[in-house]
Write a structure and sequence with these properties.
4 domains; single chain; elongated; 22 strands; five-stranded mixed barrel; Elongation Factor Tu (Ef-tu), domain 3
């Protein structure tokens, strides 16, 4: 027995609001609005009598087991056909990769995970906290180095190697390991995941070439000619009279070949040795004045160069904290979190909080001892936003998974495909806009806002 089943029901009792009927396997109520022919409240006896047998459709089965019946079988069958059509529409849309339904799903997922991200604890930089003279505001810096700490831990876990500051390149780090112990897919996956920790890293190890005592003209010749030989060569540092170049390689055999070739190429560029062009003709070059050195590393080791992706850090973390402006924060303390304050200003990584009076004593003690290390959004203050997203997700699931519960099942189709909605006549649209302009309370509405209404 399920919704939509057609049953032969016998009327056993009549009330003002409807008729009770029994059928094979159960019983139910035919509400007066579901009786055919149409009948008014209290006048059901004019159409139905105890003992009558009528054909009905099961229209609803409530959680407590009570069943609603309808005599509007033709309308019910039409609705069932409409529901079947909608379910097929939804199935068709589910098989497409790029449709409004997919975008809707992605947006609700983004909002859901964004809220989880917003609830993550926030590390405070050592020695950065300060309370103003009135004891009302606290300024601090967010410790973004925790992301690099996480990266270092991942390098130790995956490659069994430590990360070091580069000997000569400011803002660069490196680690060394035998690259051939790890297949290229593993290295590429790790390099991709580094972006989540705001680190830039190539999946392949590199050869380091230091260029010194070089003028601008020689730089131009050197870089141009080397890039003709090695498309992947890159200048990671360019100072007044020096260059620092890197060339990625895949295997130790390729490393050895490159090292030999680079020595000959650099000497040839320095001496102005000619090249053979694409057309087979010799191309003459001026000598370039510079000193060069290729970095030696231990046998069986390969060097991976990396740097912080500060642009992504400022962009993503700034976005996160921008969305938390006005949010209440606490100091995690087991089951008894300490009231902290509201985020009132953000200029990442600098933040300003308006402190709560009921937690000011504990906050001052932590600031004076430089013991304020972690704060966290007050989960209770996020409850409303969480509920909004949960309701949005529930509504989405309800509409797409159970269109039969909607007053108009076609809503589930044209909510995600506007072409299935009933089109408006142009004169109706024009009339609607004119009415909005006549009755609008806010005279400053722009054209796009009028169009949205």
């Amino acid at each position: 027995m399920k919704i939509g089943d057609v049953v032969k029901a016998k009327i056993v009792n009549i009330k003002d609001f409807g008729a009770f009927a029994e059928f094979d396997g159960g019983s139910g109520l035919i509400y007066f609005t579901q009786i055919v022919p149409r009948v008014e409240h209290g006048a059901i006896g004019e159409v139905l009598h105890v003992g009558d047998t009528v054909n009905c459709v099961i229209s609803e089965i409530k959680p407590d087991g009570k069943i609603s019946l309808t005599m509007k079988i033709k309308r019910r069958e039409a609705r069932k056909a409409k529901i079947d059509e909608v379910k097929q529409d939804i199935q068709n849309m589910s098989e497409e990769d790029t449709n409004i339904r997919s975008i809707w799903m992605a947006l609700t997922d983004i909002q859901h995970f964004m809220l989880k991200y917003m609830q993550m604890p926030i590390p405070i930089k050592h020695g950065s906290t300060k309370i103003d003279s009135k004891g009302e505001k606290l300024t601090a810096e967010i410790d973004h180095e925790v992301h690099f700490d996480a990266f270092q831990n991942e390098v130790r876990r995956v490659f069994s190697a430590d990360v070091f500051k580069h000997e000569t390149l400011s803002g660069f780090w490196y680690f060394e390991t035998d690259a051939e112990l790890y297949n290229p897919e593993v290295r590429q996956l790790f390099a991709d995941e580094c972006s989540n920790m705001y680190v830039r890293m190539q999946a392949n190890p590199i050869i380091e070439i230091s260029i010194s005592h070089v003028d601008e003209k020689s730089k131009s010749i050197l870089i141009s000619r080397l890039q003709n030989y090695y498309a992947q060569i890159e200048a990671v540092s360019d100072k007044d009279d020096s260059l620092f170049l890197t060339l990625p390689y895949r295997t130790h055999a390729e490393l050895n070949d490159y090292r030999d070739e680079l020595g000959y190429a650099l000497d040839g560029i320095s001496n102005g040795v000619s090249d053979v062009g694409d057309n087979g003709e010799h191309v003459e070059y001026e000598p370039a004045s510079f000193h060069w050195q290729i970095k030696d590393i231990r046998e069986g080791c390969d060097r991976f160069l990396l740097t912080l992706n500060e642009e992504a850090l400022l962009d993503r973390e700034g976005l996160r904290f921008g969305s938390l402006r006005g949010q209440s924060f606490v100091i995690p303390n087991g089951d008894n979190d300490i009231p902290f304050g509201k985020l009132s200003k953000i200029d990442y990584p600098k933040v300003v909080f308006s402190l709560y009076k009921d937690g000011i004593g504990s906050v001052k003690q932590l600031v004076e001892s430089d013991g304020l290390r972690i704060i966290a959004p007050d989960a209770g203050d996020l409850t409303g936003e969480i509920e909004k997203v949960n309701r949005l997700r529930d509504s989405f699931d309800r509409i797409t998974e159970h269109p039969e519960l909607l007053a108009n099942p076609k809503l589930a189709s044209y909510l995600f495909d506007a072409s299935k909605a009933t089109p408006l006549e142009e004169d109706i649209v024009v009339s609607r806009i004119e009415n909005i302009k006549k009755t609008q309370l806010n005279a400053s509405l722009n054209q796009s806002q009028v169009g949205a209404d």
